Target: DUF3048 domain-containing protein
Amino acid sequence: MTSGCQQSGAPDGRSPFTGKAARAAPVLAVKIDNVRAARPQTGLDAADIVYVERVESGLSRLLAVYSSRLPQAVGPVRSARESDLELLRQFGSPAFAYSGTQAKLEPVVEAAPLYPQPPGKTPDAYFRGRDRAAPHNLYLRPERALKAASGASTAHDIGFRFGAAPSGGRDTSSYTARYPAARFTFDWSAERRGWLVSMDGAPAKTASGQRLVAPTVVVQGVRIRPSRYHDRWGAYSPYTETTGSGPARVLRDGKAYEAHWTRPSPDGGTDFTTASAGAPLNFAAGQVWVVYVPEEAVGGGAG
Model:
């Protein structure tokens, strides 16, 4: 069995998601819009983990996980996908905020081991911003969402390990992960001790204008296949398989490390090991970005 839900992934008093000091707190996952009209996003810099997923038309969407810190607002919030349910099972029964789902997927979300928090269920947790047009202006008040999900699971080990970097690695100044209609570039900044995030060729910033930076970026090679569900125009949503095993590239401290990931079951976390020795691969403490790409795409992207 994977160590995902059984051991404390960090010493007492530290977040198993970031390796930094944090109180024990419930988990909130939020589906966040990522088309150009939705940027800059609000509250993304406060997330413990940011997952990058491919959606219809080769575009991207983000799934941000919060526990250590709760910003006043998060968004813009968008709709859920089938593969979110498998991804979120490793967190136990988290609160899950999203703007809605396809009609046939809705009962599947309701039956999943989580606390669904769409606007129809917790309307007072959402508000519309005035600076953008719908649907890119729906925002969440995280504290209200968690108040409505009082049974949400507390943050626990999902397989991440934090500590000194492994030996080896290749000096890397920049890495780009690509989807058919989106790309993410991570540029190493020694001054910020992390990877500066760019989206579609433009610097990714917070709502206050600060650059997004991630101490650790995981480019995880997975199988991406059509989901069982499609939109009103007949386009099937991609389904990202987050269980199984495959290659990965871990970026930290200005280096890229070849890695292997394993997640035998949805209820467990993901173990990352060095490709050469099979030893646990430590992340740098702080926010972690996980970018899901097709398995064959893991090898490229380094600059």
